[in-house]
Amino acid sequence: MKSIFKPGVFTLCLIPFFIITYKIFLNKLGPEPVKEITHFTGEWTLIFICITLSMNPLKRFTNFTFWIKIRRMLGLFVFFYATLHLLTYVVIDYRLDWNQIIDDVVKKKFIFIGFAAWLLLIPLVLTSSQKMIIALKHNWKKLHKLIYIIAIFGSLHFIWLSKTIYFKPLIYLIIIIFLLILRINFKRIISKTR
Amino acid sequence: MKKFKYSEITPENIYKNRRKFIKNMGLAAGSMFMGQNLITPASANTNKEELKLTDYRYVTTYNNYYEFGTGKSDPVERSQKFKTNPWDVIIDGEVENPITLSMDEILEMFPSEERVYKLRCVEGWSMIIPWLGFPLNKILNKALPTNKAKFVKFISVLDPEQMIGQRFPILDWPYKEGLRIDEAMHDLTILVTGLYGKKLPNQNGAPLRLMVPWKYGFKSSKAIVNIKLVEKMPTSSWMKASPNEYGFYSNVNPRVDHPRWSQSTERVIGGGIISPRIPTTMFNGYGDEVASLYTGMDLRKYF
Known about the structure:
- The structure holds two protein chains of two kinds.
- By secondary structure, chain A is mostly helical.
- Chain A has nine helices and no strands.
- Chain A has helices at about 1-25, 35-60, 65-95, 100-105, 110-125, 130-135, 140-145, 145-160, 165-194.
- Chain B is globular and about 50 Å long.
- By secondary structure, chain B is α+β, with helices and mostly antiparallel strands.
- The longest helix of chain B has 14 residues, at about 10-25.
- At the A-B interface, helix 2, helix 4 and helix 5 of A face loops of B.
């Protein structure tokens, strides 16, 4: 079973990537293709953050350890889509115009917080191997709580780029907050029952 | 009285030939030969890419018109049944002669001419559109503004039955905008009745919208029902929604960023994935015509 599931999930996770590649090559991105790619990869990053954060609660509700086994892969897909998103902005949109990009990162809070979120993902990716989990022991868990901050940063990144208060960016923040609240409550319940 | 027809201004075949001609000659040369009020979108240093008209399908499918929803394709999808007939426009306030004109009367009284203007959205994209319209000053002068008329307030239609976006408090409905009287009287400021030689599509603000080419797109109100001359500076819907981000003037200015994003460059709609951003120009390229309106003003303060 295990041998089927992981490649299956992996393939599913690549579907958004195939969709955007297909759209790029068949020119199906509409009037503002660069913005479309940026938004698409950005939104899928947020979706993967939400999915990754759901694995722990799902394990608790269903008592399946399956969820935890695919969590690392999902987390790496967060980094994959976040990196595509960043590359779209840096390479396709701003053509490596570093003056403009640095100016944006420093001055614009939505770009700053988005870039910060991407940077914070790096230590998580570097410590994602089984070896590192063993090497870091209980510190690994502490370190990987960074994903909570990354998730909040990611949703704020979306909210702040919008012209006015839109429904969709808020939905991501609400889902993320909900997923984080689930964790707090679970810990309390466990400590009380022990 | 003879009814005004759009086809009389620019028959489509001539229009298309003219386009080809202009394309060959370059816009500036084209306007000289045509003897028509065709205004080049930007100053002499603009490149060819910038002068290319934006495809009709993009002009009419990629719109910000929150009355029909915040998505770019919401306006075209949700506005097709919007009723623009009958339609009355009231010009009142600080005027000696308040008037109410039906759209038919407006079309008869003020012949439309073609104006090729660049539309620069505050979001950082631009289009080049052949509008049909007439200077706003023509209609204002009919109402005889008094010396108390220091500003002009534009009020768009309020109709949540037909405009689904107005059922949500995204903005202070009905949409309100404003201009200083000298900006409103400027010859570049037009009321738009059509584009691409055709009747104005609903998603572009039919039956009557404003176009102020040196300001960000949101200043150009759509579906206007009331033009009010006032003494005090009106508060626009966007100013009310976010006063630190959207000022009364909202002149296109690459040196004054939106607090949350840069305004120094823009994407040209329709350029595709390989077309680069282009630098945004002061007053959207209309500085020669309008810069004098703002002499001595700190445009960072009056953004």
